[in-house]
């Protein structure tokens, strides 16, 4: 029986089910929705905490900024999906003689966004902890202490994103090998380059 998703067994999944666009869109939507919900939840927590401390103006300003980023977040996720697929497709075509289709690569790149649900949830948890420990004596003191608290989680977040990059290398290597009918190992190189460049950008 074919796996229900390609997250753990991409070769078996794509060989049995092919490169269906619908489920990949579902993965992208889940990743985007988790980011939007986390951003909204953090905005509510932040503004309530500032308002309770008597910083009403700062609370309103923070709400406006965070909510204003929602549309940009959705657009950035969709554009990032297409750009990632384009880079992956061009690199694989350059290294592998067999032809895959851009549509199939879009499916692969779409499924590869799935782990961001986990990283989003962990980042939200760290933000909540940083917010809870921030000083409320003044808006400036709050900003400084919040940033310091969140920066203290840099190591943990870098390790998690590194683990995600390792998984993406495995996923891309196997999924692209099926799409491009290649067993030379070149697809693993493509997957590693894309995944770990993304990791470096995320921790920069």
The overall average pLDDT, rounded, is 91
- N-to-C SSE string, H for helix and E for strand: HHHHHHHH
* Number of helices, where a helix is a run of at least 4 consecutive DSSP H or I residues: 8
Strand content is under 5%
SS-based class: mainly alpha
**How far apart, in Å, are the first and last alpha carbons?**
42 Å
How much helicity do the residues have?
over 70%
User: Radius of gyration over alpha carbons?
Assistant: 20 Å
**Uncertain ranges:** none
The backbone outline, from C-alpha atoms, is elongated
Task: Count the domains.
Answer: 1
The total beta strand count reads 0
Main sheet: strands, sense, barrel: none
Task: List key phrases describing it.
204 residues; mainly alpha; 8 helices; elongated
Explain this structure.
There is one protein chain. By secondary structure, the chain is an all-alpha fold. The chain has one domain. Helix content is 80%, strand content 0%. The longest helix has 40 residues, at 56-95.
């Amino acid at each position: 029986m074919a796996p229900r998703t390609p997250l753990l067994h991409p070769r078996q999944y794509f060989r049995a089910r092919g490169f269906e666009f619908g489920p990949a869109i579902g993965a992208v939507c889940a990743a985007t929705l988790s980011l939007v919900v986390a951003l909204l939840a953090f905005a509510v927590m932040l503004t309530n905490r500032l308002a309770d401390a008597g910083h009403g103006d700062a609370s309103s300003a923070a709400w406006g900024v965070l909510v204003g980023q929602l549309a940009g977040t959705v657009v950035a996720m969709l554009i990032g999906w297409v750009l990632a697929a384009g880079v992956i497709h061009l690199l694989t075509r350059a290294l592998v003689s067999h032809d895959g289709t851009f549509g199939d690569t879009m499916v692969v790149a779409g499924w590869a966004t799935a782990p961001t649900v986990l990283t989003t949830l962990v980042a939200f948890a760290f933000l909540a902890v940083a917010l809870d420990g921030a000083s409320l004596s003044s808006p400036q003191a709050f900003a400084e202490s919040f940033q310091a608290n969140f920066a203290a989680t840099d190591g943990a977040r870098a390790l998690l994103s590194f683990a995600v990059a390792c998984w993406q290398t495995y996923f891309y290597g196997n999924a692209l090998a099926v799409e491009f009918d290649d067993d030379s190992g070149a697809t693993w190189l493509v997957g590693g380059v894309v995944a770990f460049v993304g990791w470096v950008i995320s921790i920069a």
